[in-house]
UniProtKB/TrEMBL annotation, chain A:
Residues 1-27 form the signal peptide. CDD domains: PBP2_Bug_TTT. Keywords: Signal. This is Tripartite tricarboxylate transporter substrate binding protein. The keyword Lyase does not apply. Coiled coil: none annotated. It comes from Bosea caraganae. It comes from the Bacteria.
Automatic annotation (TrEMBL), chain B:
The chain crosses the membrane at residues 7-27, 39-61, 73-89, 95-111, 118-137. The keyword Membrane applies. InterPro entries: DUF1468. Coiled coil: none annotated. Residues 8-142 form the DUF1468 domain. This is Tripartite tricarboxylate transporter TctB family protein. Keywords: Membrane, Transmembrane, Transmembrane helix.
From TrEMBL, chain C:
The keyword Transmembrane helix applies. It comes from Bosea caraganae. This is Tripartite tricarboxylate transporter permease. InterPro entries: DUF112_TM (IPR002823). The chain crosses the membrane at residues 7-29, 35-53, 109-132, 169-188, 200-220, 256-279, 315-333, 354-380, 461-486. Residues 20-438 form the DUF112 domain. It holds the Pfam family TctA. The keyword RNA-binding does not apply. Keywords: Membrane, Transmembrane, Transmembrane helix.
């Protein structure tokens, strides 16, 4: 399904308005006369998804702080690819801003000839990192990564349902690093992977968000944090590096992008506006509700990650 | 020899099966344990081909199979042409003109059409469509030529 | 006791003025949207989701749920009236519902669909309130191999519901499966059979296929006949079901509700199969199976109650586990998240008002659907009094715009045109489209579960017979397949006796 929907985001999130009233309006340094019409935030995933939530929350913040009009639309499909193809063809005037994930510019081009690469876009900043984790049912005999590896060694293999290519490649890396048979079980996405794990059909699963509720209810345990740090809802679960693994942590951010060739003045202006919105207390509160944190890597941070991961996935997926 | 329904449908299935095999030639079949993108399509294509051949054979064997009823070219050709043209025109000529073209062709497809009726109901339906789909549901299609 | 208390809390929430209003708005919008082919509940919910962000969370969820089952119901209206299944779940309703309409019994079909849906909705709401936990546990027993078994069963059932040659129906199912694979393979990321058309990368759209095969092909066939020859649609005798209709329908409604309530809980494909499975069951237990597909009210009653029950119980995995079982419910999960409610097992304890309010509102929503729809039956039926030479112009327009509205892309209109051609050829060759449609829907699901099953079994095909659930379904499929062959044998023998 993909629908193009436009509804002003000021309709969204009325709950946070009250807090904003107390704040002095911030203002980014912008060229005279920009913006002179509504700015479009176009989200690469459907309304109601994690990316959409971030896009709307940031758009809402910008509207309040900069007094601009920001319209949020959705262009879902092909793992954010539909948006990227469309955005590449738009004018780089700063009025069309894509909201998408790191995977869409690093994994998609490595998988198939999609007609765009990460270099085709300018990056204005990001709003959140996805906190990936490897989780298993709480009654399983292993509590951490070495435990799972030992289990796999003893049983001959361990099956891990994965939430996408990002998880599949990670499982293969771990299998190679430890020399054990870890079988990634792919499917249509995180929900299916979680169902398989909850039903006990697989030994563990890689997840981005669904696992938090399961950990909180005591059904599941986090074996290892797949990002570069521990997370607040599973403080005892160490990172890959802390558990002695050399496999690099996963990095996936929700960022804001425009087609290449944005004028430096407008770029500075938009970068500031996004950074102010991401660092506003209301946005932080919203992220806390999702058991996550506001995090803006800025332009350079996103470029660095995209460059590194695009090369990594091209290598791992063996194309081009 | 007249084509019976069995014979022709068998041939059509066989053709789909063959097309599935040919177009899927490059897909990686993988193994039963780790199926690639070609495993299931290949399985299906061969199955369709085999069934198609069986149905064809049955059609050939039957001495007086079901004859295919006469095709009516007029409703078929005009309806399909109208729909295809509507699809080609919609984003260029806009909803109003493409709908009128669609109704013109669709009207010509029916043996009982009375032109006055087609024109009047076509116009009414067009107004309805503009109100519901463009103003009501805000579908992103142009109303007039762009 | 506790459940009673909770339900009471739910009703007190759901019966509040605002929630009642939004429940009504949702059911009404859903009905209207469902009646327009193409724009299904998924698109509607996606469109309205941002609007609901400013509502209170219960009101938002109540309204979205109303749209969901309202659209399920509205989709059956077009299936019955003009052979247009707007949703995969109403494909089966077309089979007998449209035939009933052609016989002037559209009113009965619509009323039975409404009443059957109401009953199914009420029962399945109770099922959600009482049996969510055990049903979830049961659904979790379903492994990939079991899904394969279930789907095989569904596909064999699809062969049964075809009237013509079983061999052709099998070929149609397989062709449907193959067409369902067009697009990007989720496992490898490679595209298959897209013939260099980027628009096919996400697969062939269901609406284009359904509009072409059912709606447009049927129009072309009907236009072959001159007006005076046409099987009359005109003489509509009554708007209400007869007592006999009611008597014929109550058992199918009960069985349909049971089948739908259970299958709906299975994530990924369960709800889709419910109307197929319920219909097959009715045809099997009927003493006059030959009436099916020719306007048997049992067919409409069972399919409609099953799909409504399934639509409702497919909420269970979201409520108990926080896992959305289909794309639409994923949107609802998104709506919960926007309101700061993490979908999952904690909702029941942390936000009992939302949880039980939503459940109670489903009950009320179903009642509202009937209140909205029963008076509308007269309106719909009077539409059929419009001479066909004018009516088909409108249907054609809705098909074309409906196909476009799926992705807002003209490509889907051409897809509809291609499938209209195919559908017309199939009609001419006595190949029924329903098995193809079921194959088309299940193709990607079957392939994926087959792959997962084999991956988990390390390439051992015997999992399909060693796992009890899968083995049961395969056995049932075999029995069904045998039954397809046996009546033919019996009929030949009967014919032989008559000849004596």
């Amino acid at each position: 399904m993909s629908t193009s929907i436009s509804v002003p985001s000021r309709a969204a999130l009325t709950g946070v308005i009250a807090g904003f009233l107390a704040l002095p309006a911030a203002a980014a340094t912008c060229p005279a006369g920009f913006p002179n019409k509504p700015i479009r935030f176009v989200v690469g995933f459907g309304a109601g998804g994690g990316t959409d939530v971030i896009g709307r929350a940031v758009a809402n913040g910008i509207e309040k702080q900069q007094k601009w009009t920001v319209v949020v639309e959705n262009k879902p499909g092909a793992g954010g690819g539909v948006l990227n193809s469309w955005l590449k063809a738009q004018a780089p005037d700063g009025y069309a801003i894509g909201v998408n994930g790191t995977d869409s510019v690093t994994i998609n081009p490595a998988q198939a000839n999609v007609g765009y690469e990460w270099q085709d876009f300018d990056y204005l900043g990001s709003g959140m990192q996805t906190w990936y984790a490897l989780v298993a049912l709480a009654d399983r005999p292993y509590r951490d990564l070495p435990g799972l590896i030992a289990y796999a060694r003893e049983k001959g293999r361990a099956t891990i349902s994965v939430n996408g290519v990002i998880g599949e490649i990670l499982v293969k890396q771990l299998a190679k690093e430890y020399g054990v048979n870890l079988v990634p079980v792919p499917g249509t996405g995180a929900a299916e992977a979680m169902t398989a794990a909850l039903g006990g059909h697989v030994d563990a699963t890689t997840q981005g968000t669904l696992h938090v509720a399961q950990i909180r209810s005591g059904k599941m345990r986090q074996l290892v944090s797949l990002i570069n740090r521990r997370v607040p809802y599973a403080p005892d679960s160490a990172t890959l590096a802390e558990q002695g693994s050399k496999t690099p942590p996963l990095e996936s951010h929700t960022f804001f992008m425009t087609p290449n060739g944005l004028s430096p003045e407008i770029k500075t202006c938009l970068k500031q506006a996004i950074d102010e919105a991401v660092n506003a207390p209301e946005y932080k509160a919203q992220m806390a509700k999702f058991d996550n944190e506001a995090l803006n890597l800025g332009e350079d941070g996103n470029i660095e990650i995209n460059r590194r991961l695009a090369a990594f996935y091209k290598d791992a997926l063996g194309q081009k | 020899m007249a084509f019976s329904k069995d014979l022709l449908s068998g041939l059509i299935f066989a053709a789909f099966g063959l097309a599935g095999i040919a177009m899927g030639w490059s897909f990686d079949p993988g193994t039963a344990r780790e199926m690639g993108s070609g495993y299931f399509p290949r399985l299906l294509s061969w199955g369709i081909l085999a069934l198609g051949l069986v149905i064809t054979a049955r059609g050939l064997a039957a001495t007086h199979g079901d004859k295919i009823e006469a095709l009516h070219l007029r409703p078929f050709a005009f309806m399909i042409a109208g729909i295809v043209l509507f699809g080609l025109l919609l984003e260029r000529a806009g909803l109003v003109i493409s709908l009128l073209v669609l109704f013109g062709f669709a009207g010509a497809a029916c043996y009982d059409s009375r032109w006055k009726e087609v024109v009047i109901s076509g116009l009414l339906l067009t107004v309805f469509a503009v109100l519901v789909f463009i103003y009501g549901l805000e579908l992103p299609m142009p109303m007039w030529p762009v | 006791m506790e459940t009673a208390h909770n339900l009471l809390l739910g009703f007190s929430v759901a019966l509040s003025g605002t929630n009642l209003l939004f429940c009504f708005i949702g059911a009404l919008l859903g009905t209207l949207i469902g009646v327009l082919p193409g724009i299904g509940p998924l698109a509607t919910v996606a469109m309205l989701l941002p609007v609901t962000f400013q509502l209170d969370p219960t009101a938002a969820l109540v309204m979205l749920a109303g749209i969901y089952y309202g659209a399920q119901y509205g989709g059956s209206t077009t299936a019955i009236l003009v052979n247009l299944p707007g949703e995969s779940s109403s494909v089966i309703t077309c089979l007998d519902g449209y035939q009933m309409a052609r016989q002037g019994r559209a009113g009965s079909a619509l009323a039975i669909a409404a009443l059957g849906s109401l009953f199914a909705g009420c029962v399945s709401t109770l099922v959600i309130a009482l049996f969510s936990a055990p049903l979830t546990a049961l659904a979790q027993q379903f492994r990939p191999a079991d899904y394969c078994g279930l789907m095989t069963f569904g596909l064999v059932a699809a062969v049964i519901l075809a009237r013509g040659s079983p061999l052709k129906a099998v070929a149609m199912v397989m062709l449907g499966l193959l067409l369902g694979l067009v697009g990007t393979d989720v496992n490898s990321g490679t595209t298959r059979y897209i013939m260099k058309m980027e628009s096919l990368a996400d697969g062939i759209g269901f609406v284009g296929v359904a509009m072409g095969l059912f709606g447009l092909a049927e129009i072309i066939k009907n236009l072959e006949e001159r007006e005076h020859q046409r099987a009359v649609m005109a003489k509509i005798e009554r708007l209400w079901p007869t007592l006999q209709d009611m008597k014929d329908s109550w058992r199918p409604v009960l069985r349909g509700t049971a089948v739908g309530s259970f299958l709906g809980v299975l994530p990924g494909g369960g709800a889709l199969l419910s109307s197929f499975a319920a219909y097959t069951l009715e045809k099997r237990v009927s003493r006059t199976p030959e009436r099916f597909g020719r306007g048997a009210i049992e067919g409409v009653a069972s399919a409609e109650s099953a799909n409504n029950a399934g639509a409702q119980t497919s909420f269970i995995p979201l409520l108990t586990l926080g896992i959305p079982s289909n794309a639409l419910i994923a949107l609802m999960a998104g709506a919960m998240m926007m309101h700061g409610i993490t979908p999952g097992p904690q909702v029941m304890t942390r936000n009992p008002d939302v949880y039980w309010g939503l459940i109670a509102s489903m009950w009320i929503g179903n009642l509202m659907l009937v209140v909205i729809n029963l008076p509308l039956i007269g309106v719909w039926v009077s539409l059929l009094k419009v001479p066909y030479r004018l009516l088909y112009l409108g249907i054609t327009m809705f098909c074309c715009i409906g196909a476009y509205s799926l992705n807002n892309s003209v490509f889907d209109i051409q897809v509809a045109a291609v499938f209209a051609v195919l559908g017309y050829i199939f009609i001419k060759l006595d190949c029924e489209p329903a098995p193809l449609i079921l194959g088309f829907i299940l193709g990607p699901l079957l392939e994926e579960n087959l792959r997962r099953a084999m991956l988990l079994s390390q390439g051992d095909w015997s999992v399909f017979v060693t796992q009890p659930i899968s083995a049961t379904f395969l056995l049932l499929s075999l029995v069904l397949a045998a039954l397809i062959v046996v009546p033919n044998v019996r009929k030949t023998r009967e014919a032989a006796f008559v000849a004596d």
